Amino acid sequence: EPWQDKQRRLRQRLRRILPIDVHRPEPLGAPLRPRADALLSAFCLEAVSPDRASFVRALSHVGTLLRPGGHAVLLGALGESFYLAGPARLPVGALQEAAGFALRELRSYAMPPALRTGVDDVDGVFFAHAQK
């Protein structure tokens, strides 16, 4: 089905879209009340964090949006140091357990040669479930 139809259906189901800056201590500009039960990051936090320190800070900032016991699901790239966004080459930080989360599950998968397209230097992908 056309992506426009998928976009329309998704927008009908969303209650709200909030702009977020993961590099600010209050990523939404103000505390989230009530705090979220879960959050999802798909190829985002490591992509906007050029080094480990900024990644850990971003994860900590995002963690403030979760209630105690809340869950975080992260999907991301392993071994990636950059990705291309058009002509821009953007640095990427590496993922490690940090920022007050307890790792509940971590799975990683090697990137097969057929999926290496040259837009990044990914070795694999990961799925992580962590709890605050």
Counting DSSP E segments of at least 2 residues, the number of strands comes to 6
Instruction: Give the SSE string.
Output: HEHEEEEE
Q: Report the mean per-residue pLDDT as an integer.
A: 80
Helix content: 10-25%
Shape, please? Answer: globular
Per CATH, the superfamily is: Vaccinia Virus protein VP39
Q: Low-confidence parts lasting 5 or more residues at pLDDT below 50? A: none
**Broad CATH class:** Alpha Beta
What name does the CATH topology carry?
Rossmann fold
CATH architecture identity: 3-Layer(aba) Sandwich
Which structural class fits the helix and strand makeup?
alpha+beta
Task: Give the quaternary arrangement of the chains.
Answer: single chain
The structural domain count equals 1
Q: What share of the residues does DSSP label as strand, in percent?
A: 25-35%
- Measured between the Cα atoms of the first and last residue, the distance is 38 Å
Q: With helices defined by DSSP (H or I, 4 residues minimum), what is the helix count?
A: 2
